[in-house]
Design a protein that fits this description.
The complex is a heterodimer. Chain A contains one helix and nine strands; from the N terminus they run αβββββββββ. By secondary structure, chain A is α+β, with helices and mostly antiparallel strands. Chain A has a single domain, classed as Jelly Rolls. In chain A, the strands form two sheets. In chain A, strands 1, 2, 4, 7 and 9 form a five-stranded antiparallel sheet that branches. In chain A, strands 3-8-5-6 form a four-stranded antiparallel sheet, with no helix packed on it. About 5% of the residues of chain A have low confidence. Chain B has a domain of 211 residues. Helices cover 60% and strands 8% of the residues of chain B. Chain B has twelve helices and five strands. A two-stranded antiparallel sheet of chain B has the order 2-5. In chain B, strands 3-4 form a two-stranded antiparallel ribbon. Chain B is globular. The N terminus of chain B is likely disordered. At the A-B interface, helix 1, strand 1, strand 2, strand 3 and strand 7 of A face helix 1, strand 1, helix 3, helix 7 and helix 10 of B.
Chain lengths: 147, 306
């Protein structure tokens, strides 16, 4: 059977769209999330993904006692308030931005270096039957040497 | 009609297949279910074993810029002889060696930047560019950025911004284009270089209470993250080799004990900053340090002497 010409075109279109969506995510992280770091130096790492409402992302990172940090968690407008919670090694909650009116940034420093876990939650807000919203969520870190 | 239905079935099939691909890729490094099964011994300093089935898991290593900053903040001196010579660039031809050395050169570049080594900054930026170009990373380091670097060679703030931006260009490109294994290897290269430079700069006569030794001990906290990062690309032969090497290093790190008290978050209103208060106890003998230093050096040799 002859393969219709439309198929490779469709496949190419879909792959291109996927790459474009990811590229948009990088552009979003660069344009929206990194400026939130303000006077902190962005560490250069990139943590961003397309998340659907109701989904979660986790991030594991070591933070050092010599530094002061700012974490910036941003989601595209269509995702509404993004929640992020910081846990220690014993699953104790150290911070939740829910208590700070869903603040997009959190500044912190440590007395001793620790490995922490960040959980980012995209709340589900659409009514059942509606197609779930999705969008880019980025987690960026900035640092400066502790005064 | 039947023919039309057949064509539509094929189109539907392509769409379904493509949407599956899209779903699997969304964000570059989808939560690797295998990562959960990595054997990580219980350690009170690790939260990695707590990994649950989140949609997306990021294993974040310190970036080359952060590693270099840690070395400087510990009061270490600059030693050009410790860097990977830029003359080696042409010997890196495989994706693995280019990825590892993109991380290594970016760390060296960060180190040179923080110590205001003007000529070295340009040289190492060009070396990093060569690695990024070799990996096919589009627009990671553009000539305009090198020109900007040259124009601002005495402005450390601008230089750090450029280093950060070019590094993000590389790792975002790799993540967004479905190359998590290469992205992981870049980070691994940078992390090893930071650890290598740190261990080489420790003066054994000044071992006890040495701030740099403290920062080296801290790297134990990242070793499980490193293993999980690599495990998410398990099956890639280059990554599998790296996992074996990193596990050798983990054996040495496991000889160091870290105990930490409960973390007490305290909010400082004046600086609008949360201080995570805790006390930490560590023990690393000079013998374990030497073993660590040799292991790091041996592994790094396999990265740079391709």
């Amino acid at each position: 059977m002859r393969i219709p010409r439309i198929i490779p075109i469709l496949a190419l279109l879909i792959v291109t769209t996927t790459v474009n969506v990811d590229a948009q995510c990088k552009a979003f992280a660069k344009k929206v999330c990194i400026p939130e770091l303000g006077a902190y130096t962005h560490d250069g790492n990139y943590h961003a993904a397309i998340l659907v409402e109701g989904e979660e992302a986790e991030l594991y990172k070591t933070f050092y006692s010599d530094m002061e940090y700012r974490v910036s968690v941003c989601g595209e407008d269509k995702l509404k308030d993004i929640e992020f919670i910081v846990f220690d090694a014993n699953k104790n909650v150290l911070y939740s931005n829910k208590t700070a009116n869903y603040a997009k940034t959190w500044d912190f420093k440590l007395q001793s270096s620790q490995q922490l876990k960040l959980v980012v939650k995209v709340p589900a807000f659409n009514k059942s039957g509606d197609s779930p919203a999705s969008g880019c969520v980025a987690i960026m870190f900035g640092f400066k040497i502790k005064k | 009609m039947t023919k039309k239905f057949g064509i539509f079935s094929i189109i539907l099939g392509v769409l379904l297949f493509a949407s599956l691909l899209t779903g699997c890729k969304s964000g570059g490094t989808k939560a690797p279910k295998e990562a959960v099964t990595v054997s990580v011994p219980k350690d009170n300093t690790s939260v990695v074993e707590d990994i649950k089935q989140a949609e997306k898991i990021f294993n974040a290593l310190p970036s080359p810029l952060e590693s270099a900053m840690l070395i400087k903040s510990a009061g270490a001196r600059f030693d050009e002889a410790l860097l990977n010579p830029v003359g080696n660039v042409n010997s890196y031809v495989t994706n693995k060696s280019m990825a590892l050395n993109l991380g290594i050169y970016t760390c060296d570049l960060s180190f040179a930047s923080l110590y205001e080594q003007t000529q070295l900054i340009i040289d190492y930026m060009n070396a990093a560019k060569k690695m990024a170009d070799g990996l096919g990373i589009l627009k990671a380091i553009e000539q305009s950025q090198i020109d900007k670097l040259e124009e601002n060679i005495n402005n450390s703030e601008v230089i750090m911004e450029i280093v950060s931006e070019t590094f993000m260009n590389s790792n975002s490109y790799l993540s967004d284009n479905g190359q998590p294994a290469i992205a992981a290897m870049v980070l691994v290269g940078g992390w090893f270089e930071g650890l290598y430079i740190s261990t080489q700069l420790v003066d054994m006569k000044d071992f006890n209470g040495n701030k740099l030794v403290g920062r080296i001990i801290d790297q134990k906290l990242s070793i499980d993250i490193l293993i999980n990062l690599l495990a998410s690309s398990k099956g890639n032969p280059a990554v599998d080799d790296l996992i074996i090497q990193v596990k050798k290093l983990k054996i040495v790190f496991d000889k160091i004990k870290i105990t930490t008290s409960k973390i007490r978050p305290e909010f400082d209103k004046t600086s609008n900053t949360t201080v995570l208060k805790s006390e930490i106890k560590t023990d690393m003998t000079p013998e374990v340090f030497k073993e660590l230093s040799i292991t790091v050096s041996d592994i790094r040799k396999t990265f740079v002497n391709n």
